[in-house]
Amino acid sequence: MARIIVITSGKGGVGKTTTAAAMAMGLAQRGHRTVVVDFDVGLRNLDLIMGCERRVVYDFVNVINQEANLNQALIRDKRCENLFVLPASQTRDKDALTKEGVGRVIEDLSSGYDFIVCDSPAGIEHGANMAMYYADDAVVVTNPEVSSVRDSDRMLGILSSKSRRAETQADPIREFLLLTRYDPERVAHGEMLSVEDVQEILALNLLGVVPESKAVLAASNAGVPVVLDRESDAGKAYGDMVARYLGEDVPHRFLHVEKKGFLSRIFRG
Amino acid sequence: MTSHQGSNGGDRQPVFDLKAAGFTLPTIRLLDPDMRRVAAELGARVEKAPDFFRNTPIVIDLSALPEGGAGVEFPSLVGLLRGFGMIPFGVRGGGKSLQAAAEAMDLAILGEREMRGARPERPLELPDPTVQLAKLAPEPVAQEPNAAQGTNFTMITRPIRSGQRVYASAGDLCVIAPVSAGAELMAEGNIHVYGSLRGRALAGMRGNREARIFCQDLRAELVSIAGHYRVSENIPVELRGIPVQVFLDQKILRIEKL
Questions:
Q1: For chain B, which has fewer Cβ within 10 Å, the N-terminal or C-terminal residue?
Q2: pTM to 2 decimals?
Q3: Domain around B206
Q4: Cβ B181–A161 below 8 Å, yes or no?
């Protein structure tokens, strides 16, 4: 049975798809059979971030409508053989996601994979609800600013009341916080909420802090999950996040402004 | 809202009806007249569910006490029950001397007549205060789940998130977790929050002016007792972030440091 992970946030543009791609790739690289599912029907992006947009034939909605079978729609990643992508449909809308249809696809995937990563659309409407409904774990992606924190909080409320686990009164979804676009320098200047501030409001298990990094945009444009960029801060932070999710005890990095050494101060120009 | 419609002398409406009505009442059946033991045991029970006993009329059953045994110290028993918020009002069973002692304390003597046709008695079920709200605030409104058991205490141990609403009808609401901005707590009785209170808290929803809000860390957007409210802007800075109680004092909503 696969573990179903939803990457969600409420707010848009905080890094859900980047995180879904990085997490799926990270899990797959550690030897777990993983499939990442794009729930953002109508605004299909995950395939771009994963660099497989030119290989999309059938999509999630085709499978739900039984116009194609799963194997026709799943795209195997070229860099990692444990990783598969189930792209969203660009020509439909979110209503194409029915609870029964999504449930059937998730169940079919469940037997063949270790992890199902669900990339949620923004908002708290039907698409986001379908993405989180079957989840076992939730990674709530949050930027260190008040509106993002508020929206995450809202989403956490929905996770604890509208998911399958809530409706069947099973153990609640395990919720994790991932702070992205974190800029320690701006935090030091009091321009951005700190990790502690966000933790105090959301009271969640901190899965990782991903620093603001140019590598993320570069990776997205290149269609390479940023976790593969092991030189960048963001790539390392996502690697740590996956390790923590799998139960490893990894200290948090990139929380504080790096002390500039003597040489770097000279050569900075 | 009520006008004095009935005050004009012309109408001959009866002032009252006299009727017989049956009630199911909690009964404390004394097995041992030792007041110290009673006090200890009762204290432990009440502690588990203080609201259950608040303003509850209670009958003292003396039938299990041995005839001619030690007397019952009614003054201390009545004081004890009142101290725990109960309203002892009568006794049943017991010998002549016990009943006389009870009568001296202004307790009613309930005979067999009052009990005819009563349903078989069963042990009183105390609410389990650790019971968690099974479905925390299924949006938009969570009804407190114990209503069916006739109890009125709602306990929530998970954070209440932005957009969630919790309504505790006919009783107190206790939250042992943070309440986020944009969340809404409502109770007909008191509200207790052991965690940051950032959302809204409305106590005394059905006009109970005695209701209060107790919280450990006040950062609320709005607090209200029986419709008298204050928004965050009108809460002094020095009262924010500290333990306080909120209560009504002559129609004025007061917030006081605890």
A1: N
A2: 0.66
A3: 138-257
A4: no
